[in-house]
Amino acid sequence: MFVTHLSLADFRSYGGVEVPLEAGVTVFTGANGQGKTNLVEAIEFLATLGSHRVASEAPLVRAGAERAIARARVQAGLEDTRSLLLEIEIIPGRANKASLNRAPLRRPRDLLGALRVVLFSPEDLAIVKGDPGERRRFIDELVTARWPRLAGVRADYDQVLRQRSSLLKTLSGRHGRVAGEGVEVTLDIWDAQLAALGAELVAARLATLAELAPLLASAYADIAPTNNLAAATYKSSALPALVEPEPPSLVELVETTATPTVPELAAQLEARMRERRGEEIARGLCLVGPHRDDITLTLGDLPTKGYASHGEAWSMALALRLAGFALLRADGVEPVLILDDVFAELDETRRARLAELIAGAEQVLITAAVAADVPTALSGRRFSVQNATVTMEADGGSDG
């Protein structure tokens, strides 16, 4: 799939802009702060309902405007001319509105799956060097891209987690309230719900990470000028088969059919909650569940966090994204690949290797402050972006 047209109204720095796109490579160049990343961020938001730059949606709306609109026409494939029109209206402080082919959707998340995007940006270094939440976000975004219905499972899990956390704080006395009779029975109910939803998320993460592992090793070997083996294993806060020390590799788990089923995972999560109930009540926190899990990234025998050089960390982050891209393609989907201000961070060797790896992608959208940073092998359409005005270079007209 690929985007054939992008339309924005009051999105970030753009009062209004129309950008014609096509398959192949498109490069947006311009100095920092001119609006080039805003364009690819809008495409990312339409695909994921999230942004790699901000956690809240308010900054996506142009200063002084009440709402923003992002709209994209998406073609199914190079030889499949069917298309969809995706639109989302971002309204700070209120529920967003989404439509597909101009028909309103009941929920914005019903838009998920209509456009798939893999985006790499300088912020992705946090996946390697940051806290566990960054790695959970990475795997959950990939899981949702593969199975859009799991966005609903994630939303339900977060809601139950909030309710259970509130109840634990009440039991701990941190809210200044005394728990009434039957509260522990209510906690049992929340335990069962959290375990059931959490088991679905963990199962999807395990399945995805197991398939990602060989792709990650291959991508890292293709990018980095070293012979280190890149690996990723799941670190669970709850499940005995997956806790440290020395958790088994996910490849081994799958090959030996040791990966638990969803009901087995739910039972293990619920049992672990009962074991740690006293500690959870004392601390007023949910200590068990996928919201506490992590992914251990390693190069050779050493973890990347704390041991990898800057170049190795960059290569690992890029390899993770490329592995995700390859996994979606293996699922039969051609996602849009977005490289946001990436080439300036890479040396000449890694630039050349990356260019070679992505040359066959159906659509690649690149942003760069300096055109010379983009390898000449990535030829295609070029737009200059200046003061929120987008101009096609050389062989095209302009759109402002």
Topology:
Elements: E1 2-11, E2 14-20, E3 24-29, H1 36-48, E4 68-77, E5 80-90, E6 97-100, E7 103-104, E8 117-120, H2 125-129, H3 132-146, H4 150-172, H5 183-223, E9 230-235, H6 250-255, H7 262-275, H8 277-283, E10 294-299, E11 302-303, H9 310-330, E12 336-340, H10 348-358, E13 363-368, E14 381-386, E15 389-392, E16 398-399
Parallel strand pairs: 3-13, 3-14, 8-12, 12-13
Antiparallel strand pairs: 1-2, 1-4, 4-5, 5-6, 6-7, 9-10, 10-11, 14-15, 15-16
Short description:
The protein has 400 residues and is of the alpha+beta class.
CA-to-CA gap between the ends?
A: 25 Å
Task: Compute the average pLDDT.
Answer: 89
Order of helices and strands: EEEHEEEEEHHHHEHHHEEHEHEEEE
Task: Using the 3D structure, state the CATH architecture of the domain at 1-116 and 333-400.
Answer: 3-Layer(aba) Sandwich
What name goes with the CATH superfamily of the domain at 1-116 and 333-400? P-loop containing nucleotide triphosphate hydrolases
Name of the level-1 CATH class of the domain at 1-116 and 333-400 = Alpha Beta
Q: How does the overall form come out from the CA principal axes?
A: globular
Task: Give the oligomeric state of the chains in this entry, treating copies of one chain as homo and distinct chains as hetero.
Answer: single chain
State the strand order across the main sheet: 8-12-13-3-14-15-16
